[in-house]
């Protein structure tokens, strides 16, 4: 069986449906496929996202996939110092990804895209050295899908980007391993997300509690994937040390998260790579939903222009625009991650202690300059050449 479309999108996570929706809206024929039986399942995500994305990317604020509104965050240092950032207004939400991803696919279908679950991309089809489509299997039947433009939105492993000859290699150190329980847990303010830091708690990463109900939350951890011990080991250890029984587990999720190694060439001829497949993820907190939406928006804009003008070389502008905008920002964040990796537990204790007295609004706004200035004024920082050097690396 063979089909022909203007655009085929492989993967219906976050980036894929944004591209499919935007391109279909412009009147082009789009097919989006996903290998899962049910789009959105299983989730591999802590499910938190900023409130800003709904308006920015034209996504309905639909209570069906919004579990809970969040008003800020609470950070805990290795010795238990706390820094609370609380706002008057909602700053983020905890999603139900299983519903959210499916609804994003639904919006794409409503805009005119065809969507097929349980359809796995296996390889690209080449003709005269050019990629002209993909080989896939739908419900175990082999199919060939021909398309002018192919979008690899197929996650961390991204078969299609690799088969198309896009270099998505990143060293193991640029990935985090994550492990998460959706579980019953009590005693944490459900209006805030909670984050614990420490080299013994979560090397290079953090433990998170993202509340879904007063007594139910996503409780997870991310650590460097080249760690000799597993993420599960550290998460179970943390639960035990905090006397939190892990006996009411509703779900277990395991994943690999890119936290660096952004793909340099996002386009090769008529193949584009977006989202986790392109490592478009925030290296500090490992979140990639907003990044995938941004990349999907830029990619779809250039796909539409290229199809309108029947000039596929315009697709290269996606690489250019992404690197000049979000890529630039994420490179700065990566710099911050590389510095924070060098912090000792004493540093983390001290910084969280100092900052809890500083202007929390500025910190929460991500104004690193102000944060660093506040830290640099402190005598314990001024007396340590190592700390001064680390902080100056960030400026």
What is the helix content? Answer: 25-40%
Total domains, how many?
3
Instruction: Give the class from helix and strand content and strand pairing.
Output: alpha/beta
How would you name the CATH homologous superfamily of the largest domain? FAD/NAD(P)-binding domain
**Poorly predicted ranges:** none
CATH fold group of the largest domain = FAD/NAD(P)-binding domain
Distance between the termini: 57 Å
Rg, nearest Å: 22 Å
Strand content: 25-35%
Shape: globular
Could you please describe the fold and organization of this structure?
With 395 residues, the chain is of the alpha/beta class. It has helices spanning 15-25, 53-56, 97-110, 159-163, 231-241, 289-308, 316-324, 326-340, 345-357, 360-364, 368-376, 379-382, 385-394, and strands at 2-10, 30-33, 48-50, 66-70, 72-76, 82-86, 92-95, 114-116, 119-127, 130-138, 141-152, 175-184, 193-196, 206-213, 216-224, 249-258, 267-268, 271-273. The chain folds into 3 domains: 2-68 and 94-169 and 260-333, FAD/NAD(P)-binding domain (3-Layer(bba) Sandwich), CATH 3.50.50.60; 172-258, D-Amino Acid Oxidase, subunit A, domain 2 (D-Amino Acid Oxidase, Chain A, domain 2); 355-393, no CATH class. Helices cover 33% and strands 29% of the residues. Strands 1, 2, 8, 9, 10, 11, 17 and 18 form an 8-stranded mixed sheet that branches. Strands 6-5-13-14-15-12-16 form a 7-stranded mixed sheet. β10 (130-138) and β11 (141-152) form a beta hairpin. α1 runs parallel beside α3 and α8 (326-340) runs antiparallel to α13 (385-394). The N and C termini lie far apart (57 Å). The model has no long low-confidence stretch (mean pLDDT 94). FAD binds at residues 15, 34, 45-46, 48, 97, 121, 276, 288-289.
